[in-house]
Specification:
Layout lengths: L6 H6 L4 H11 L11 E5 L4 E7 L8 E5 L3 E6 L20 E6 L4 E9 L2 E8 L15 H7 L8
Antiparallel strand pairs: 1-2, 2-7, 3-4, 4-5, 6-7
């Protein structure tokens, strides 16, 4: 039994539905995750990341990279070969694939490059100014008292 009940989490929090849904999706996924093509995710700076996918045998025209609803979707489909080849051993897989990566809020794809059989996708987290922490100045109680005007009863 590997299912968890996230109902208490939904009752005790506001605005964290996305996290609970993601954990529920990950923990209830009994289907084996695909391992093709292999990939690396690296943190290149404080707010920048790079996904490197091994796509040997694919050209730029065989690959597609798109962002849709906070998900990065990388797909590859090899064009059919015109002539039949006779392989003694075929170890380089060129089968079609689709890889999905969930993107956090405020993470955007800044570019993609294909070089030496590797597809490199660069990402950057850009937090809007309104969401960045800001310092609030603390004033003393005496300064607040100076601004109060004495109110006297008219009647």
């Amino acid at each position: 039994m590997r299912s968890f009940d996230f109902a208490p989490l939904h009752r005790a929090t506001i605005g964290f539905d996305q996290i609970a849904d993601m954990m529920d999706r990950v923990l209830t996924n009994d289907v084996a995750q695909p391992t093709y093509p292999p990939y690396n995710i690296e943190k290149t700076d404080a707010d920048t990341y790079r996904i490197s996918i091994a796509v040997a045998g694919f050209s730029e025209t065989d690959l597609s990279v798109e962002v849709k609803e906070n998900a990065l979707i990388v797909a590859g489909k090899k064009a059919s070969e015109d002539k039949e080849r006779s392989y003694l051993h075929r170890g380089i897989a060129t089968r079609a694939f689709e890889r999905r990566f969930a993107l956090a809020d405020h993470v955007r794809v800044t570019g993609a490059s294909h070089e030496d059989g590797m597809l490199n996708i660069d990402l950057k987290r850009e937090v809007p100014e309104a969401l960045k922490p800001r310092r609030i100045e603390i004033s003393s109680a005496k300064a607040i008292e100076k601004d109060v005007v004495d109110a006297k009863a008219v009647n």
